[in-house]
Amino acid sequence: MANDSINVKLEIPFPTNRLAQIVYDVLKVDQEPKRSGVKKELSVSENILKVKFVSSLARQSRVAVNSFFESLNLIVETIDFIGEPTSEEYTHF
Amino acid sequence: MVVAIGFEGSANKLGIGIVVDGTVLSNCRRTYITPPGEGFLPKETAQHHRDNIITVLREALANAKICTSDIDVVCYTKGPGMGAPLQSTAIVARTVAQLWNKPLIGVNHCIGHIEMGRLITGAKNPTVLYVSGGNTQVIAYSRKRYRIFGETIDIAIGNCLDRFARVLKLSNAPSPGYNIEQMAKKGNKFIQLPYCVKGMDVSFSGILSYLEEKVPKLLAEGYTPEDLCFSLQENLFAMLVETTERALAHCNSQEVLIVGGVGCNERLQEMMGQMCEERGAKLFATDERFCIDNGVMIAHAGAEMFRSGCKMKWEDCFITQRYRTDEVETTWRDD
């Protein structure tokens, strides 16, 4: 199979831009494992978190997408428990 | 006053703790326990942490009886440890830091153990023996770093004990090491085992292989599993006491602090205590609440870093499986 032939694009809507931004900031810190063979690109526009996976094997994409959803799920659970963000932006960079 | 919350999840323990200036407000923990004969693997351990972390967080916040707006800093284990469990725990720490708009600090796990040990025992400038499932190091402080004087050149002592427990099919609850310790109390026939001290370093994997191979034969010869546990413990701990004593002599130190999960082994504490007594030194050790991985140690070490002005860029709040004790500048110590 040709290189980088598998493309997966996901769009995840959130109630607000701030929440989408938080999820983006939390996720962007972790790099994909070096040997995963997957390139992951994250971005935010308005209240939508966008993510693109590029790999040469379906198996690699599946692993990356599964792992992405596990992390996403954990963040959403945490937000559900903690509640709304207390500030308009994060001020401790 | 610094209020800190700490998230720890570098191995099979998931812990969240809250401290105010060295006073523990809450210390909650869950342990992922595998069936006898099996060890814990990264994927399943991470799943355990994800399944339990919200419950533990709820418990930690409720026990602490504080308002979340009073928290000054969120701390998490940056490494060393297993990648997937570290990442799951860090994700939650990052999310709460964002939601509460609080600074986030990544803490070296080994530093967490040392600072927690110093806090609980009151040891000022001890030579530290850090023994756990993933690490075995003899550490002393010098010029703004915790320096490693000796360490294992292959597997950690806790790993050696855990894997030997698997050979005997001992239970992993509450921990394999605890069960070996209990069995060792009933053993009395000592079996000569390889003794592997190489300079200041120690090696355990050869001892484990030797035993793994010999166990059926030894049992057939009339040695009991209790005798094997007894012999293994005596042999391994003697190696640790030897290297620690040498570090102690080199640093001219009068204090020994034992930290890490294996540190709650009372036989190890007893042997180290004898050595200290002969040298006129003092031994400091803690019990299982603070020896075994916990969130409080991360919170406390993070609070010390925070107090000394340490800040971490958001991009630097990643996790790393390899993170040596001497990589961290101890900005909070000025001796």
Automatic annotation (TrEMBL), chain A:
It comes from Nicrophorus vespilloides. Belongs to the CTAG/PCC1 family. The gene is LOC108562893. This is Uncharacterized protein LOC108562893.
Automatic annotation (TrEMBL), chain B:
Coiled coil: none annotated. Its EC number is 2.3.1.234. Substrate binds at Y130, V131, S132, G133, G134, D162, G177, E181, N265. It is found in: Cytoplasm; Nucleus. Gene3D superfamilies: 3.30.420.40. Keywords: Acyltransferase, Cytoplasm, Metal-binding, Nucleus, Transferase, tRNA processing. Its cofactor is a divalent metal cation. It catalyses: L-threonylcarbamoyladenylate + adenosine(37) in tRNA = N(6)-L-threonylcarbamoyladenosine(37) in tRNA + AMP + H(+). Its main location: cytoplasm. Residues 30-299 form the Gcp-like domain. Binds 1 divalent metal cation per subunit. A divalent metal cation binds at H109, H113, Y130, D293. It comes from the Eukaryota. HAMAP family: Kae1. Belongs to the KAE1 / TsaD family. This is N(6)-L-threonylcarbamoyladenine synthase. It comes from Nicrophorus vespilloides (Boreal carrion beetle). The lineage of its organism: Eukaryota, Metazoa, Ecdysozoa, Arthropoda, Hexapoda.
